[in-house]
Amino acid sequence: MSSIIDFLINFLPGFVIALAVIIASAIVFPFLARRVLGFIGDRLGPNRVGPQGLFQPFADFLKLFIKEDVTPSQANWLLFLLAPAVALVTPMLTQVVIPFSENYTIAELNIGLIYLVAVGAFSVLGFLIAGWASNNKYSLVGGLRAAAQMISYEIPLILTIIIIALLTGSLSLNKVVGAQETVWFAAVQPLAFIIYVIAGVAELNRTPFDLPEAESELVSGYITEYGGMRFAFLYGLVEWGNVAVWAMAGSTLFLGGWRGPLFSSAFWLFLKGGIMVLVIIWFWATFPRLQIDQLMDFAWKILIPLSLINLAATSLFIVLWPDNFLLPTAIVSWSFIALFILFFPSLIRRILLNKRLKLLAQRRMTTIIHGTGKGGITS
Amino acid sequence: MSATEELTGPGQPVLRLEEMILNMGPQHPSTHGVLRLVLHLDGEQVISVEPMLGYLHRGFEKIAENRTYLQYLAMISRLDYLSGFFMEWSYVRSVEALMGLRVPKRAEYIRVIIGELNRIISHHIAYGDFLMNLGASTPFVWAFRDREDVYDLLEMVTGQRMMYNYMRVGGVRWDLPDEFEASCRKFLKEFPPRIDEYEKLVTENEIFLSRTLGMGIIKPYEALDYGISGPNARASGVDWDLRREVGYSVYPEFDFEVPLGQHGDCFDRYKCRIEEMRESTKIIEQALDSLCGGPVNLKLPPMLRPPAGEIYRAVETPRGEYGVYLVSNGGLRPWRLKLRDPTFSAISMIPKLTAGNKIADLVAIAGSLDLIMGGVDR
Predict the structure, then answer these.
(1) A291 contact residues in B (CB cutoff 8 A)
(2) Which of A292, A367, A378 sits opposite B360 (nearest CB)?
(3) How many of the other CB atoms lie within 10 Å of CB of A138?
(4) Domains and CATH numbers, chain B
(5) ipTM of the complex, rounded to two decimals
(6) Is the pTM of this model over 0.95?
């Protein structure tokens, strides 16, 4: 009996906090996204329900919750039922190792980083189940896309997290925050931070990597057949919960976690996480979507080699200067970024133009056919 | 290895790989109305595409045989609903030619002004929808924001936002309102910087380039073979624009360029449309400058009786050559009316362009062709 009470005392607060974080993110972030997208698109966004439209997410959830719960007759009902629950496991479990403040972590593990990566890899399962169980071709393609994409982008994500482990010399997330007392790892390893952001956006299926739920191609990908409460579960809780966990993990790993000026508390963690989510929303408003093979190329030909080189360089510096490796690491990382910004756009453009010429040569282009006048060539 | 091949080995179970047949549309976010595409897929790869038409069939050609010439004007802008004014124009032009009417000069200028404004909003949709198909959300919203300004102008003149019913045989319905010229000039001053803004958001974006360069190439002679016209053909290097070649209405008076591409891919089609928006603003400006006084309409009896005969007249719509073939037996109603829609030709090109590409490319190509099903299924 006492063991059950012990268990509840240990278990319940963490469970409630984890759930609260996810529900809060499912309420705050969609609203934020819609207002920010509205701002960027030069329109208002939702502003009718409550002051400044603040109650809009509640109205949305209420609407979704009172809808009829439909299961497609040809779907595998058990898996169809389970998929949202399975998908919710990841955001619930991953955040238990993230330190909310100096002395509160839901579960303090000395292998927090490994736990983060291992449980994070679980997220693809829910989407794959949802895609398969719906018995819909759009869902199936969406689920398979999600699987391919999330597994590919996990590798650069893990490689950057290894760099953090190297810099800290520990796998505990509390130690990671402790190691950033003087300088954030985002300043020491900006390259790793940028790779973390890019690979994370791909992991979260957000624009420009939102292929699994590409609206213009696959209707809604693996969520196509889900409606009402289950849709709220999959789209609201799971997706935005994942975003929240990614943002909190990112601010813990790279932006100093709960540390901040004046006072140190969970406030700074949430603020930094919120800013990272704003970056995702900004991407959302700005970029078109990549194509599936370009997406894979980008992971395997650019991100993974880059993060491998970064990892090798960092390890080398740690071996060479065990006491003072931060400065050379920072120099190499920043110069990588400078090179990237200087040469990458023009390089990509040249590759693309060459590809275009090759395709044109395959389909022999003849001369321009003129009418009575002469038009001006635009491109 | 083909997708339907049976893989058999000694003592191995038979593994049958099948094509996946996917009905894309008629209810789908990116089929521009009610186009249904039957895709044969090998995973992500498109093996073949079959466009299915007819979900918006309303019998427009047959209805024309039961309406007087004036009555039918109210219907024709429902065909290609994004460039309704051009529909009216093409029809009115063929009736006028059959009757041998000379339209007053002022009416022609007004037609050009309204027509080019309509071209701008149509290209707005082309731009926004194309990028929506590529997964970008903001260009669509921006296009709709700026479209609103043009709609205000059109509403000021015609009283309607989409189905104008403003053309009449022998002119236009009524004169421009007094405040139109000032507001139109204001719009013309504000609009070119906004086109630059669109381009800044999209044209140099590496993801956009990687999706559109070399994608869906139409060769110039292919474009002619398939009867493709308008910006789709001009992007392939077919230097053909009815406004310049035929020089109908008062277009020969204006100085404008016909934007051409030389690769015929999605990017060139996009770029051609953007440049055409710029050219349209130039044309409107010149038309406003040379707007003369006089009547805007010929005094004609309400019941038109064109002489017996047949005629084909076309105008350059935002999507290409829209033709009206009209046969009259001297009665009150057309004996036969045949409409030629440029989008129909563009759709017939889709299977050839998309075979072997990915699903995402199919959507991009369909978006770059600027399909409107209202005119196709007439």
Answers:
(1) 210-211, 358, 360-361
(2) A292
(3) 24
(4) 6-51 (no CATH), 52-376 (1.10.645.10)
(5) 0.82
(6) no
